[in-house]
Amino acid sequence: MLTELRISNFGVIEQLAVTFGAGFIVFTGETGAGKSLLIDAVTLLVGGRASAEHIRAQAEEAELEAAFHLPPEHPLLALLRNKGFARSGETDILIRRIISRTGRNRTYLNGNLCPVHLLEELGGALVDVHGQHEQQSLLSPSAQMDALDAFGGFQPLRQEYQHAYRDWQDRVGDLETLTAQIAQRREREDLLRFQFQEMTDAGIEAGEDARLEQERPRLMHSQQLGELSDQLHELLYAGDQGVLSLLAGARKLLAKMESLDATTVEWIKTMDEAVVPLKDLADQVRRYRDHVEANPSRLLEIEQRLDRLHRLAKKYGGSLDAMLAWQDSLRAQLAELDHAETHLQERTRAVEQAVLSLRDVADRLSRKRLDAAKKITAQVMKELGGLRMERTRFSVEVSRLSGDAPYGQTGQDTVEFMFSANPGEPLKPLAKVASGGELSRVMLALKTILAESDQVPVLIFDEVDAGVGGAVAEVMGVRLRSLSRHHQVLCVTHLPQVGSQAHAHYLVEKRVRQNRTMTQVRLLDLDEREEEVARMLAGVTVTKKARAAAAEMIASAKDRQ
After folding, report:
1. Is 101 within 8 Å of 9 (Cβ atoms)?
2. What's the pLDDT score for residue 117?
3. By the 8 A CB rule, do 528 and 507 touch?
4. Does residue 526 surpass a pLDDT of 90?
5. Residue 419 pLDDT
6. Residue 194 belongs to some domain of the structure
7. Is position 394 within any domain?
8. Which domain holds residue 42?
9. Are 316 and 230 in a shared domain?
C-alpha cells in the first residue's frame, strides 16, 4: 500500500506531506482545490509523462516522493531484487522524481537512479489509476483480454502458450534465415565453386610458403655455399694442420702431463668435450657439401610456386592461413548447398511440430476463455444490477483471429466487451457506446469481481462516480469500501454517499498566503468528517438535518464492516 506521499512545488502545492493507512481512503474538497493533483503526482511517480507545466510558478523544480509497503510474497519485490533495486528481506519501496524546467529530470528507486521506463514497467504492478481519462485503458483489447484471463486464473496456461509461441517464432525464424542464406548462396554458387576449385587445384598445404622461402636461397647461392662448405671442412679435418689434427696433438701433450701430475686430468676431459662436437660439426659440413648442388629447374619450380601462392593469397585473404580459412568456409557453404533440401526439410518439420504444440495450447486456452466469458458475463451483469443498471446488457465475446496471422502473443483469440445501455438496442463494443458514468460502473463491477485475483496493491479512483448519484452512488461507495478488503483504495469524490463509506477521509483545501495560492491536505476526525459529508449533502448552508444525515451515513458504513 501507499504509506506516505510528499510533494514540493507541484502545481498549486508548495509543500505537502501525507501519510496513509490501509482501507478505503477518500479525498474531498471544493472544485479546483487540487484533489486531482494528488492523483497526478502518484501517476508521475509510477512512470507518467512529466512536463515543466507541472512545476509551481517561480520554482525551478518540482519534487515528488512516495513510499509503498508490500507483502513479502509480492512478485514485484522479487523483480526489484533481480534488477538490483532491493535487498533480500526488504518490503518497502521508495520512489522519488524530480521535474526540472531545464528538462534534466531525475528518477530514483530506493535511493538509486533509475530510468523512467523502469517506473513504467513497475507502475502497472504497483498502482492502478482509474479516472475519467485513465479508465480508457479498460477499453483496450489487451486490457479486456487480461481481465478475462485474470478472472479465469489462466496465467499458467498463458505462460505455457507464450513459451510455445516463442518456440514457434524461433523455429520460423531459423527456417526463414536458412532459406534466405541458401537463396543468397545459390546466386553466388558458381563463384563459390570456382573459388573453392581454384584453391583445391593449387593443392595448398599449411606452412608451405615458409618452407619454400627457406629452400630458395640455398638454390640461388648453391655454388658459393659449396665452396664455403669445402673450405670449412678442410679447415676442420684436412691434414696435419686441420683443427682436429691439432687438437689430437694437444691431447697427447696433456696425457703426458697427466702422467706426471694427476691434477691435470680435468684438462683432458675438457679437451675431449671440445673435440666431440667439432667432429659432429665436421660430419654435418661434409654431408651439407655433398648435397649442395646447382638445380636451376628446382629453383624455377620454387619461384613459380611461390608466385602462385602469393597471387592466391592476395586474392583470398592476404596470407596463406587466411586463404586456407576461406577454403574451409567455402567447403562448409558448398556442403550446406549440397544438403540444402535436407536441411530445409528438417527445419520445415520443426516448424510444423512447433505449430502443432502451439495449436494444442491455443485450443485449450480458447476453450477455457469461452467458458470463463460466460461466467464473467453473468457476474458482471449481477454486479451491474446492484449498481442500478438492471436494464443494461453486458457480454464478453471471444472470437478467433483471422487472416495470415492466426496466432498472436496471447493466443488465437480476440476478446471484446460488448454493451447495451437500453433495452432493444443491440450489443456493441463497450468503447463505442458507454458513457462516462456507465464506464465507471462497468469498471467498478469488474474490479469487484477481480478483487481477489488482482495483485495490484493500490487502486486509485479519480471522480469515477461522475454522472451518478442517489442510490447508485451509495452502492458505488459500498463497492469501493468492499474492494479495500483486498486493496488499498484511494478515491477522489464529490458524492457524500461515497465519502461516508471511507475508513479515512482527507480534506483538500486551497489557502492564500502572502498572495500565493497553495493546497493543503488534512486528515479529518469524526466530527470534521460529519461536517464535510454534511457540506457535500447540503451545499453552501449546512443544516442540522444535513449533519444528522451525515452522521447516520458514516455510522451505517461502520456497521457494514
Report:
1. no
2. 84
3. yes
4. yes
5. 92
6. yes
7. no
8. 1-137+455-523
9. yes
Please indicate whether residue 557 or residue 495 has the higher confidence score (pLDDT): 495
Average pLDDT, the chain: 85
The pLDDT > 70 percentage for the chain reads 95
For residue 511, give the CATH number of its domain: 3.40.50.300
**Among the listed residues 42, 39, 62, the one whose alpha carbon sits nearest the alpha carbon of residue 51:** 62
The answer to whether residue 136 scores a pLDDT higher than 60 is no
Which of 304, 338, 372 finishes a domain? 338
Whole-angstrom Cα distance, residue 547 to residue 402? 60
- What average pLDDT does this structure show over 336-356? 88
Q: Which DSSP category does 388 fall into?
A: T
pLDDT tens-digit profile of 458-472? 988 887 666 666 777
The whole-angstrom separation of Cα 503 and Cα 480 is 11
How many Å apart are CA 112 and CA 96, to the nearest integer?
9
- CA separation, residue 164 to residues 161, 176, 545 (Å): 5, 18, 65
Contact between residue 462 and residue 377 where contact means Cβ atoms under 8 Å apart: no
Q: Residue 560: its pLDDT value, please?
A: 64
Backbone φ/ψ region at 125: left (φ over 0), alpha (ψ -120 to 50), beta: alpha
For the sheet containing 24-28, what is the strand order?
A: 127-131, 458-462, 488-492, 24-28, 504-513, 516-523
Q: Report how far apart, in Å, the C-alpha atoms of 425 and of each of 318, 383, 392, 419, 467 are.
A: 80, 21, 10, 9, 21
Q: Is residue 436 part of a domain?
A: no
Amino acid, res. 441: R
Q: What is the pTM of this model?
A: 0.64
